[in-house]
Amino acid sequence: MVHTALVRTVVAGLVVLAAAFGAEGRDWHVAPGGADGSAGTVAEPLATLGHAVARASSGDSILLDRGGTYFASDLSVPSGLSVRAYGNGARPILTGSVRAHLTGTWPQNPAVRTGAVPGRVLACYVDGRFVRLARWPNADAGFLRNDADNQPDEIVDSELAARPGVSPGRWTGAFVRWRRWSWWWETRPITQHGPVDTLALGPEGKFQDPFSDPGSGYFIDNDLDELDAPGEWHWEAGVLYLYPPTWADPTNMRVDVVTTTSAAVLVDHGDVPEGIRTSGSTFENIHFTRYYGTALAINRPTTISDCTFSEIESNAVRFTWDAQPFTIRRSVFSDIRNIAISGWADLADPAGSLIERNLFLRIGSEPGYGGWGSWHAAGIIVGQANAAVVRLNRFIDTGYAGIILGSDGQTVEKNVFVRAMGTLNDGGAVYTNCNASIIRDNIILDTIGDLEYSHPWWPMGHGIWPEFLSDFHDTVITDNTIYGSNGHGIFLPNNFTCTISGNTIVDNRRAALGLYVDSNPNQGHAITNNTLVSTAPSRRIDRPENLSHWWLPPYTEPDPVALEYDAAGDFGSMSHTTFVAPTTVGGVIRRKPDDAMFNTLAEWTADAPWASATGSLVNRANAVLLFNDTEESVAMPVPTGSWTRPDGSAVGATVTVQPWRSVVLVTTGSVPASPPYFAASGIDWRAATPVMSYLGDDGRIFVDGFETGNTSAWISPTDSNQW
Fold it and tell me: Which ranges in 104-208 belong to alpha helices (H)?
């Protein structure tokens, strides 16, 4: 016999558990061809996400039919909902764009197609691909350059007057996209054109800095008369004008536009509502595309997994004050004009936000688009967070930094960065503006620092750069592999009590490690067990435009060195350092500001009291880098030739490299110009578009079908055929 009181206790407990974990909610199905008054079942689906949200309750799931496209903009998704995919085929698409129908032609140029679009067009896409506003000079013709000095609201340029047929007023009302400083762009309306060589600019989109510099690049757009090249568009008085891009069939192309009803001339993405806002939901296997403002804004703990974000003009994901802890996993961010993930959170909120196993591809890579002022065109910007972790991601082709940390106590680990700083300058693949960050086990390749349309400056694309504009301290930089930076591998210009250990830094334009003083010379670092390699001729990515715009021309580029340090500094302690440099370069270690060169440990330690010969060595040899960008230990083949470790010890046919670590091998013979390094994954990271892959939870390297949402293949790091 069962006691009644016991039954009541058990039942009460089950009720409590049900309340704690939530009752299982119902499913709401949404599909093309559905009806918003239907039951929301598989057989009778709804038509729109908005109606599903309006009818759903916390704990419910909204299921979008794969292969469908659903307009969703300025929509709030309340807490407790799950938005996922069902069925077969490509991930369901949420978009802020609408279809434009171009049925006419422009009498001034019959190749240009026209059509009525009542709302002001903010962005245009043809067959799913971004196209530019009509501009001068055209994209393939480069940029104009400002002649004026310290005139932040005015451009003076003799090239304007030299254009045939130009007269004052010609560009009044158009836009200027201006790289006013080497590390930011501004988009400004032209309020007056006159005299003919002068453009007066409005304040919209202006970064509040009182200076400008001669030589800074710019171009003019948003002007119908500049519509003269394939792949350009203009909107005016309710009509869209499009010069079809070369990849499209003008008679059968799909044209999508993002519009606004605002009468204002919008140059700031902040003027446009977010696409989707959520106060705490789950998004799985959804494709967000073609939003002008933020695609997905999260203001409560949210999980985003296995999603794609593409063709976003501002932020793909923006987290706000109460978003912690959030999770973003196994998602692909591609062709984001500004920032993939960014935000500011309340430091009092729970810790534990996680950004892991994502792919970031072409972020902030379109010059002049995406954002204005500092801290734009980046993969991830953690303006403020409580102990967030960014790990196991891949960043390929970011305009500015791969990651920016703006508050204390974040962790960046086991990521791959390729060609950061590709359209801007004066930053790093990992750039911090805070204390006590942890940066470890990352692989950083070919950081650029672009000067093509900058005012004259140094090519400052550093691998890792803790900022110097405050007394930042206690950063931990350990076990990173850094190759081919156009600045320094690690740049410490004014930091204090940092730990710099176990890093392997190879083939950087300026130095593997740079130690400088800005204000306080007593920096107190612990620098140990680093391998610093400088070889020549360098196998860095060659960017000739960088050399012609060094400050101030003419400028003789210094030889690359393993270490560069400020004579005025006491940098704490530096020991157990392996220096590698061939005899063809002028020296191994350079002292600033007098450029004195040291080639031996004895010379260096005699000059720098903080330098120690303990455990250190200098090897004048050529070098090659092997790194493991997988989660498995890998026996990597030794290249053809006679190789040893830097300490002279022999190697066999293979070298075992641990996950996220690297090995430097040296030779007195020559080294191949290509490949410049060897990756355990077998991925060619220098390809124009490297393998679109991410790391699965089980350590395998998955190649994502992107549009299908399915893993189409995986690479085994133990397969020697991949090398």
Answer: 158-162
